[in-house]
Write a structure and sequence with these properties.
The two termini are about 20 Å apart. Helix content is about 15%, strand content about 40%. It has about 90 residues and is mostly beta strands. The relative contact order is 0.25. The protein contains 2 helices and 6 strands.
C-alpha cells in the first residue's frame, strides 16, 4: 500500500514527531485513482472537540516501538496546528 505497510498497518499506526511526541491516530487513508496511498487523515491528539487533518504520506518514515509500527514525521505540533481541518468520511 505505502511505505511497505498494508492499509491495516497504516490505520493502526500512530503519527509521531521527530522528538517522539504523538500527533494522533490514523483514521483513514486517502488514495489516488490508481489505489496508491497519498495522505493520511489523522485525529489530532488531545483535540477537543475532535479535530482531523490530512498529512501527506511523503516525508513519513516507519518507526518500530516494541511490537508497534508507527510513522514518524519531521512536522511539529505547530505545523499540524496550522493545517486546515479535514472532514472524516
Amino acid at each position: 500500500m505505502a511505505l511497505g505497510l498494508t492499509e491495516r498497518q497504516l490505520l493502526d499506526a500512530e503519527i509521531l514527531a521527530a522528538d517522539g511526541t504523538e500527533f494522533g491516530d490514523v483514521e483513514a487513508v486517502t488514495k489516488d485513482a490508481d489505489g496508491n496511498a497519498t495522505e493520511l487523515l489523522i485525529e489530532v491528539e488531545d483535540s477537543d472537540p475532535d479535530r482531523y487533518v490530512a498529512i501527506p504520506i511523503d516525508g513519513l518514515t516507519v518507526t518500530t516501538r516494541g511490537n508497534d509500527t508507527d510513522l514518524s514525521s519531521e512536522m511539529t505540533m505547530e505545523d499540524i496546528g496550522s493545517l486546515p481541518d479535514a472532514q472524516i468520511q
